[in-house]
Amino acid sequence: MAQSTSSVITLNVNGEKRTLPVDHRTTLLDALRERLDLTGTKKGCDQGQCGACTVLIDGRRAVSCLQLAVAAEGREITTIEGLADGDQLHPVQQAFLDLDGFQCGYCTPGQICSALAVIEEHAAGWPSAATTDVRPEAGVPPLTADEIRERMSGNLCRCGAYVSIVQAVARAAGVETAQAAPALPQQGRTEEGTAA
Ligand code: FES
Ligand code: FES
After folding, report:
1. Measured distance between the N- and C-terminal CA atoms of the chain, rounded to whole angstroms
2. Substitution site in 28, 45, 113 for ligand 1 pocket (most atoms within 8 Å of beta carbon)
């Protein structure tokens, strides 16, 4: 007997339950854009390279072009449409607007969703590849420009609005201006430069 290739699923998107039939091969990105008319989430590469399709799933960022819609059932999905509170923009949206963190805007929904998660990950003390001191006693690393660039590196912007994007993320995180990274710690070194 032939197996069914579609199912009726319920997605919890921006706090609303949406029930829809989907082919099992449908990505979350296509379900959001083509079936639920949530076109704020953008399709760039459709292969996990550009970050334009970034949404939050249970508070963690994910590229929705690499997620199957059926696998997202029962999880909390937040898209760019779910961030503002009525006419009140989310602080990350406002910072991008105030600091011109975009040019064409195509990558911006993904950048903003990613930035939200970056700010939470950083505040929770998660290190990144740019963190110079990962010892637990070092605490939360300063949110430098290098930290922001590294943590946002999954989101590409073809216009090259990166300078303003870094500043917008810093502003939204409560850091007025993203600073350069501090120098690497020099522990375990003598004046002659050899390990002590
Ligand atoms: S469209 Fe998903 S990463 Fe590019
Ligand atoms: S603002 Fe144009 S691609 Fe990012």
Report:
1. 72
2. 45
Cα 171 from Cα 52, distance rounded (Å): 21
Return the ligand number nearest the Cα of 65: 1
pLDDT digits (tens, 9 = 90+) for 148-167: 999 999 999 999 999 999 99
Ligand nearest to the CA of residue 63, numbered in listed order:
1
pLDDT of residue 53: 98
**What residue ranges define each of the domains in the chain, with the CATH number in brackets?**
6-82 (3.10.20.30), 91-172 (1.10.150.120)
pTM of model > 0.85: yes
CA of 160 to the centre of ligand 1 (A): 17
Which strands sit side by side in the sheet containing 6-13, from one edge to the other? 16-23, 6-13, 76-78, 54-57, 60-63
Residues with CB under 6 A from ligand 2: 102-108, 157-159, 161
Residues in the chain where the model's pLDDT stays below 50: 187-196
Atom of ligand 2 nearest to the CA of 104: 2
The pLDDT, as a whole number, for residue 117 is 98
Ligand 1 close to Cβ of residue 158 (< 6 A): no
